[in-house]
Amino acid sequence: MTSTSTPLAGLRVIDWTHVLAGPFAGYQLGLLGAEVIRIERADGDDMIRAKGLDAELTALGLGETFVTQGAGKRSLAIDARDPRAKQALAELIGSADVLLENFRPGKLAALGFDPQQLIARHPQLVVCSITGFGPASDRRAYDHVIQAASGLMAANADRDGKPQRVGFPLVDYAVGQQAALAVMSALYRRDRPNGEARTRGEWLQVSMMGAALTLMAPTYAGPLVSGMEMPRSASTAFSGSPLSGTFEVADGQLAIVCNAADQARGLLNALRETGTAASLLSSLHEAAEQRDVPRAQALLGQALGGRTTAEWDALLTRHGVPATPVMRPAQAAAQVARDWPHVELPLPNGARRVPVPGIGFTSSEPLTPSLRAPVRRGADTRRLLAEAGLEAPTIAAMLADGAASEPSD
């Protein structure tokens, strides 16, 4: 597929972000065809490049997590405090449609790139700033911290009520998608023919806390709307349905949710079909009618224990019961990875072809162009500095004195 047929073809994004949330936002835009230029420190500071399980990849600054959100991007590695680097950055930002940044509040302005001044100089520019607790707070934040501060850990409590962190950086990726949505809304407003000037940029503020709370609306709806709160547990369906939960079966775990009367009937009919004792079925029905969740879950676990996940999956699906084996992430991803973009990682002992995450929806029209493989830090430094108008001797001097960098081999 050519990039010119994709939704964001011709859009230039300066991705001046690091770690997870910001780079993921840039990656979403790249998956839709935007040109994404990643700005990195000349001396390297992004932990996801250098951390990973595969020693060969991490030695090249291509840690697995970086690979999953680095495809399609160009890399410029510079010291943004250097006047020559500032000149190049100013030129690149001026040529862009979008600037993504996730510095602490005020840091971008301190570097000489105040968002409001940038927009005044470049009316087409959309600046998207990603922060932890919002633009008014200088508090440092990571996904783990925001999970605690937002109530997410409490909403994910275990059976004993102990708060638990969701086991992957959910908030980082939620804010990345929220930032991509914010950028798309600003671009639509900028380019919408409504009688006003067609180039009107804006400064967007997207916070990790805001994104987390947006995701969690159902958990605080009761307290804020009616003043009442239902106890929550990660082991029980959000609906509180007694015929729901995660259960041990012969070879793993099975998740079941019966929120509707026909689903409950389907579950009881499936259990009856397997020869479950009438007395157990009667007790289970009674517990469900009384909405006695602990008793219903204990009885249901007793009824499910003797068969495999595959057997239950087939039987419950046939009876219209929402259920599935509990999958490991790699198992679940393997079911769709063949349809994701694939890239060739250039390694010393030969290229390795791997899938990278695709955009989370499909369309009758083209979406994602062929993606360039994730590159090493500074792989495009010389070319991008030249595109920014710097002369070859200046670029060579920057590389020599550490104001810019590129891969050494």
Characterise this structure.
With about 400 residues, the chain is α/β, with parallel strands linked by helices. It folds into two domains: about 5-215 and about 335-405, 3-Layer(aba) Sandwich (Rossmann fold); about 245-325, formyl-coa transferase, domain 3 (2-Layer Sandwich), CATH 3.30.1540. The chain has 19 helices and twelve strands. It has helices at about 20-30, 45-50, 55-60, 65-70, 85-95, 105-110, 115-120, 145-150, 150-155, 170-190, 210-215, 215-225, 260-275, 280-290, 295-305, 310-320, 330-335, 380-385, 390-400, and strands at about 10-15, 35-40, 75-80, 100, 125-130, 200-205, 245-250, 250-255, 325, 340-345, 350-355, 405. The strands form three sheets. It has a seven-stranded mixed beta sheet, with helices on both faces. It has a three-stranded antiparallel beta sheet with strand order 7-8-9, with helices on one face. A hairpin with a 6-residue loop joins β10 (about 340-345) and β11 (about 350-355). α10 packs across α11 (about 210-215) and α14 (about 280-290) packs antiparallel against α15. It is elongated and about 85 Å long. The chain starts with 11 loop residues before the first strand and ends with a strand. About 35% of the residues are buried.
